[in-house]
Amino acid sequence: MQKPKVLVVFYSRNSSTEMLAKAVAEGALEVGAEVRMRRVREVVGPDVMRQAPGWLENATEMNTKYEAPTEADAEWADAIVFGTPTRFGSISAELKAYIDGLGGLWFAGKLNGKVGSVFGSTSSRHGGNEATLLATYAPMAHLGLIIVPLGYADAAMFKAGTPYGATHVSQRDAVKPDDDHLAVARFQGRRVTTIARALHVQPQHVAA
Known about the structure:
The protein is α/β, with parallel strands linked by helices. Helix content is 41%, strand content 15%. Strands 1, 2, 3, 4, 5 and 6 form a 6-stranded parallel sheet that branches. GO terms for molecular function: FMN binding; NAD(P)H dehydrogenase (quinone) activity.
């Protein structure tokens, strides 16, 4: 049987969102998905990046591990899971730039009916985690994605995360996602894959 194809496309500067992305991918793999992980690229140059300690170095390291996402990745996928840090209470410019670049696929109707989900992180408590996830729902709806929230459909949800998607508060990058938050992200990967399979993967019929 064909495997559900899941694209995990994220932006991360200091690895918190990256760790959630890896957990989402792990959850998807657990239930039989074919997964692509992609990191969107910076929209500013090295001079700006050097103003934030570690940004340039971390970006260089992560960009050697993950390919940049393309239109072809989005067209390939049965499900697209976006990951973003909160930037001033909303989606990061880096991830939004990738989404904005999908206009050609949108115009051709090639994203309609794909599964969509989102996870994220922020530096401070009440820094906009839930607002960011909900803000990402808007472009997902415009793309024609079938938005999949988490609800409270798994025991992990009663310890961490939000019903809108996995989240983490890094306390100014002093705290990395713990087992509870990673468990929510893995559940998100499993949930998205299960729904993508139901919508897009048809069983193969054996000829009599």
